[in-house]
Design a protein that fits this description.
The protein has 79 residues and is mostly helical. It has three helices and no strands. The model has no long low-confidence stretch (mean pLDDT 81).
């Protein structure tokens, strides 16, 4: 049996992550990102320390819908 495992984390930053201090100092951006994604109909775990998993239950359409929503939110947040 073959398995593919995916694990994602989200960092909402306008700059490159060069240190843990930079990565953890984005709570306001994360709040805006989660709110924007929720307004787009995409529910994500409400913490910057939560992991995301893609599974076979997610269709190509689900993934594309999420990507489009992320683009809209990032554009609105100017990230």
């Amino acid at each position: 049996m073959r398995a593919v495992i995916s694990l994602l984390v989200h960092l909402v930053l306008a700059a490159c992550v060069a240190s843990f201090a930079i990565a953890k100092d984005n709570s306001e951006e994360i709040k805006k990102y989660f709110k924007g994604m929720l307004e787009q109909g995409i529910y994500l775990a409400p913490s910057q320390y939560e992991a995301l998993f893609v599974s076979s239950a997610h269709s190509e359409r689900d993934i594309q819908t999420t990507i489009l929503a992320m683009r809209e939110v990032f554009t609105a947040l100017r990230i």
